[in-house]
Amino acid sequence: MKISIGSTSLSTVAKRERRLTNERGSKGKARRIASRFIFAGFLAAAIAPTLGVAQQLPSNEKIIASGLLAPRGLRFGPDGDLYVAEAGTGGSKSTGKACTQVPGPVGPYTGGPNARISKISPSGKRTTVASGFPSTQDAMGDLIGVADVVFMDDVLYAVVSGGGCSHGNPNSPSGIAKVNRTTGQWELIADIGAFLKTHPTEFESADDFEPDGTLYSVITVDGKLYTVEPNHGEVLSVTKGGTIKQVIDISASEGHIVPTSIAERNGKFYVGNLNLFPIDPQWARILTIENGGYEDHDVPGFDTEGYHIVNSKAGFTTVVAVDFGPDGLLYALELSDMAGNPAPGEGKVVRVNRAGVVEDVVTGLVVPTAMTFGPDKALYVSNFGAAPAGMGQILRIDVALSY
Length: 403
Prior knowledge:
By secondary structure, the protein is mostly beta strands. 10% of the residues lie in helices and 39% in strands. It is built from five helices and 25 strands.
């Protein structure tokens, strides 16, 4: 996945680009590497020395599931079980010259049908709900598969991110799938990979481009699904019948900022972003997006129609999930808070307190990828989510809520 967000000044961007050029040797190469999200190969080497040591957790944290295949988005179902999207293990199928490939050093990808959705019972038992989803692995070891899950009218839907020819899965597109929880059968109701090819966003990065997208998160609002596509930089809506529409082209105003996550409150969307690598702490932000358009009567070319960005709050780092807690505050999950590349133990959960200050809630996480609040008001986190397959955990965390 590629990620970045911003509304920084031109001079700041220019300085940063010059720094990346000096550090990496070439501007283009720096951007491609910087915008990668997972770094699974790098993390395998970094995390491996700790595997033989018992994991020490604070008293308010508990591992409720382990051994998962790169866990991503998670939601509680109507049956009380916790449903978890898993990216899988990639595969060996390469499509070569059959279609446009992702540029190196990230591409090419190789794919296979081994992403899945699991559910975790209250006792911690893992059961496969549905399998055979497209999974893919890039040249750097990053895994993409099922990216998120959500329920609408008690029906399970999944974000299928590992599909598409450029991901080594030419017969299994990326998009939104409807899943039968009883039989495990699933069907793609919205081919978002095809939509992206015919509906380009305003500013796509040629050296950091995913033809089939890297869909990451989804929510439901008023009978529709809303999903975030980080690489092209947009939010899309999908109806139950599979109709796809662009809600907002974030790239048109923010450039290649790589939005990742979305929450909704009273008709407003709150979208977080990862930002470019190497990590600059506190450069990521959360955008507030409203409907209704904007008219600029003084300067031509600045009008917008429909949904548009009305506010932006910085002070975050590598945001991969946003959610509202039981206390009504906005919480954000950060992949890694340390400058440089993602590092084990640097992931954390922050929230915006009632004074408007971004404060730490949970620290010490290892490349987490998603979170959700449970019916018990505890926080559930996909830990080791961006690590190699088989290392994934789900943590249950008792959070001191702020009413």
